[in-house]
Amino acid sequence: MQVALGEAARALGRTRPNPVVGCVIAKGGEIIAAGHHVKAGAPHAEAVALARAGAAAAGADVYVTLEPCDHWGRTPPCSEALIAAKVRRVFIGMRDPNPVVNGRGLKRLRRAGIKTEVGLLEQDCAALNEAYIRYVRDRRPLFVAKAAMTLDGKVATRTGDARWISGKAARDRGHALRNVCDAILVGRGTVSADDPRLTCRVPGGRDPVRIVLDTEARTPTTANVVRAARRSTAPTWIIVGPDARPAKRRGLEAAGAEVLECPERRGRIDLKRLAHLLYEREITSVLVEGGPTVLGSLLDLDLVDKLHLFVAPMILGDRRARSVIAGEGTARLAHAWRLHTVTYRMVGADLEIVGYPHRR
């Protein structure tokens, strides 16, 4: 199952709206075939592994990170393929939370006399597919926030100077996150201040969909994030409010961006409606690299699912410098967000803190 997890991880950020799945076929204590689901519409992991195993799959054990499907979608049911291959046993990491699948694959296999076991390395399998689980259960993408700050919680000086708070190793880690998320989200303020490209500079990586929150469609057509849409296989989406000027929209579209309208809330893009819009566009995970206002707004709405915080050994010591989060927040410690399932590691000279925010 650990090998199957490794197979599945190879496709992170590439299978939307499908989960990442790995499959291993073994016989006599030896692995005879392995495979993973590459992208939506391509053969599922079980089909890939069975094709590689051929006739040797008969009587073998199958290890798959997610319950085999039992319905026709873009590809045939995996449960039928396993039965046809006459495998002996199927070890399943976790049941599929999708109600279209949940339990059906298991029942089909058991009715065919194939022994099944569910829950092998279940927590690891669920962690690998946390975006897919959020997507099918809550009908919205998983929001993963990334930020770099000083020891005193600042992300930029009072003049806006922010390059670079984190070191190169931490920035490389940020690009690795871009490589495994479906989309990357920033506000227009970040575009104006930094003119980022929002591309992935990982060798062999792929660019995420670039999303800019811009209520009034004021993003310059010459901005790198707009120009990147013509140079990359990933699009740039500018999210505007209903009152954005038509001429501005047309200019951005002519420059290569796609302009999407979303309702406003208190003069800004309604982030809950945005989450639903992204769900409809089959975005399962969003890396939030926006500034303090965007991060604070998402946190206020309990839309930040996971946080990667890079703490640099640096102090600005200026109360006018920009803080890492600028939301409404809370006036009581009892209502503060607390991170659970927290991990810490050094990335170069910086400390990376990863956790899941939760508050009462």
Quick description:
The chain has helices at residues 2-9, 45-53, 78-84, 104-111, 122-128, 130-138, 168-180, 188-194, 224-231, 246-254, 271-280, 292-300, and strands at 22-27, 30-36, 61-64, 89-92, 115-118, 142-149, 154-156, 183-187, 209-213, 236-240, 258-261, 264-265, 268-269, 285-288, 306-311, 322-323, 338-347, 350-358. It is of the alpha/beta class and 360 residues long.
Q: What is the helix content? A: 25-40%
Order of helices and strands: HEEHEHEHEHHEEHEHEHEHEEEHEHEEEE
Q: For the record, give the distance between the C-alpha atoms at the N and C termini, rounded to a whole number.
A: 36 Å
List segments where confidence is low: pLDDT < 50 over at least 5 consecutive residues. Answer: none
Query: How many helix segments?
Result: 12
User: What is the mean predicted local confidence, pLDDT?
Assistant: 94
